[in-house]
Every structure is written in structure tokens, then in C-alpha cells.
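## Example pair
The file below holds two records. Each record gives the amino-acid sequence first, followed by its C-alpha cell line.
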Amino acid sequence: MGIYRDRVLPRLQDKVMDRPDSRDIRARVCAGLSGEVVEIGFGTGLNMPHYPADVTRIAAVEPSALCVRLAQSRIAESTTEVSLVGLSGESLALPSAAYEAAVSTWTLCTIPDVEAALAEVRRVLRPGGRFHFVEHGHAPDPAVARWQRRIEPVWKRVAGGCHVSRPIGELIERAGFRMEALDTYYQDGEPRVFGYTFEGVATKS
């Protein structure tokens, strides 16, 4: 699985996650951001075209060296400074209460200790700092949720540790955030077991 995880999966995700519908969602998630932003799971830089000009610097957290390499062309096309600041969202080598906003797009599903990662995001945000996110997770329909539980053990091996059954909204609120806006829906074009989506903005309370 090492070669697949390190060499193949990043290239697959770069293509699969760059479809038109996903780009529209990324644009909504990045809207209204400004100042210095922490991005958890920077990946191949697919959010770069959607960051507003008011974003001055992105502190990027990304464990995959190949993803960082694939992101270079997108970074070069942007005027926003990008600094790689760590490999793991569970332990951020960043000062507390220093950032105006944080972003996560389809990342919380893959972090082994998602509670620790959310605690770290909250720690590095200033009081009133905003967490912009889109994630897939636990569906409200019982039949879909049953299939999520069935498929998850195998899917985690195929998709780099991706969990499809995490209750994203609850996890964010339990981490000490106040939900400002939350839209939940099945993403168009996605199988329902993978496509139940949580899109929103939460504030450090």
C-alpha cells in the first residue's frame, strides 16, 4: 500500500477532486476569507484559484510530499504567499490565537484523530476566528448510513484513511466552535454513501 498511498493516490485525488461541481463548492468555502489563513490538508493546491485577494498568506499543512510538488504550479499562478508549516493537523507547530481563519476541504475524513485536529484548529485561531469547511460524512438516511458503516473499513484502505461516517457538524461544535452557517446536502454526481456533505462556517467561541 505504500507505493499506492504515496505515488498513486495523490494523483488520483488531484483529478477526482477537481471536477466542476467541486470547484463551485471550493469557491463558496473560500469566499470572505482574508488575512492569514491556515489550511488543513492543503493537498495539491486545489483551493488556490478560489482564495480572495484579501488573503495575504496561507499556512499550509500537508503530509504528502507528492501533493506539495503537484501544487507548485497552482502556487506559482497565485499572488498569495504559501508556507508549508507542518505535516499533521493533529499537532500544529503554530502559535496560539494567531490566525484569522482556517480552511478544511474534504480533509477531516482522513485525519486519524479528528478531535485533536479540531482542537488544534481552535487553538491557533484568534478569538472570533472563523473555520470554513466542506466535508462529507454521516448521512441522515438510515439505509445510507448502514451502507456507510459497511463500506468504511474497505474504503479507508482504498482512499487514504477516509471515513465516510463521521458526524462532522457535531464534531466541530463539540470542539468548541459556534456554527454560524451549515448547509447539508447530497453532492450532485456522487454516490449517496460518499456524497452527504457538510458545508459551512464556524466561529471560535
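Second record, same layout:
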Amino acid sequence: MPTGYIYIVSTVQSDYEQESRGCVPTCRAGKLYFGPCKRFMRPKMQRGDYIFGISPSSTWPRRIVFAVRIDERMTFSEAYRRFPSLRGGGGAIHIQPARSPGLHFPDSHYEHIPDAMHAGDWRNDVLTPDRDAFFVCQAGSPALDCWLGGGGPVVSAEILGFLKRCNVYGRGFLSTNAGATYRAPIRHGRLYTGLHLETNDPGTLMALVNRLTEKLEPQKVRRQSSAGGCKSGAAVIRRGGKC
């Protein structure tokens, strides 16, 4: 049975697009690539699971900006070999196979790519082998693109009702999400960051996204998703940038 993972995409701006092409998730050629960050979520994610991204508190209304299904799970080493265009400052791959292996993981396997994100913190992204996980995703529905952006459905009463039935996780299970609001669709008490939701019924949320997105103007959805989840012409992420 697939699991659904839901989290806040902090790098999305007021126009519901990523702040740069160096941010993750990254959309290229009809696929969504999920690399660094979400360190407590990635070890559990498997092929066939769903991922949903909600726009951050700096946006209003809050929207689901992407809804995808995991097509492949692989190590960063395999991702580095297969996707050279995603390496470094302009993409989602921020580490490369180590040329001078150290004694302990991750230094025994990896080193940081100059100018890529997380220059001073990359080890935490792959601190243990179970975090050495990079994902290739496809749209969760044939009717949708991987990146919905400003065409994604608003967190409506129906969607919020579903989110309230999900469980909140950080390092582990924390609580149900019953206290969620339109302003804080994922929360644990007064904690709003570093969290994600999990559900064993991702199909219901996917059906809601599919139905509510279809109500929007189709040309608008296609136009806003065509930038691949990034602003057209946006500069690549700066050295040591945040994702």
C-alpha cells in the first residue's frame, strides 16, 4: 500500500514558483527530481509512494504546488552518473562520489560539489546510508503536470479536512494533525517547521487535487507549470544557498 508524504515547500515564493533553479524539488522535462532536505522523510520514501508540496506561509492562499508519485529511488552516486545536468549550483545534486575516501560514511562515499547548495551542511543530508536517497517522480495523475504552481488547488475546506486526518512527523511520530488551520495546514502544537504529514490514503488526496485543479483554466495551469517549478530565467542558487 503506498504512503503519501505532505510537506511545506519553503523555497516557493509569492508567485508559487521556486526562488531559483537550484532549489529542490527540481522539475525538468516532465519529471520532478527530489534530492536534499527533508532528512527525516526521505529514508522512508519508496517507489510508488506519493509526495505533495504545499506553498509556505509567505503565500496566500496556500496551494498544493506539486503532486507526484515516486518513479525511482536511487543513491546520489547513481543520480550523479545518470543526470549530469542536475549537478552543482544549477540542480538538485549537491554531492559527488568521493575521490579521496574517508574512513566513515558519508565522507567514505561523497564530497561536496563546489558552488552547490548546502556547502557547510551536506553531510547531514546523507548522514547515514538510509538518507542516501534521491528520487525521480512523475505526475500523480496523467491529467496533471509535475509542477502545478499557481494553478494548483487552494487548500480548501475539503483539502484541509483531509490534512487534519493525517499524522504529523518530525524525527518520528508526533501527533495527529487535528489542529491544522488554513494558515497552518501542518502543525504540532506551536511547532510549524521541520514537519511533514503521512497518510496511508494518498489516493483520496490525489483525487481531490485532480478534481480541484481541473476546475481551473487549463491554459493557465499549463502556462504556469511550463517553467518547471522555477521562474523563467531565474539565477542559479548562490554558493551555500538554502533549499
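Notes on the second record: The longest helix spans residues 202-214. The helical segments are 76-82, 122-125, 157-164, 202-214, 218-225.
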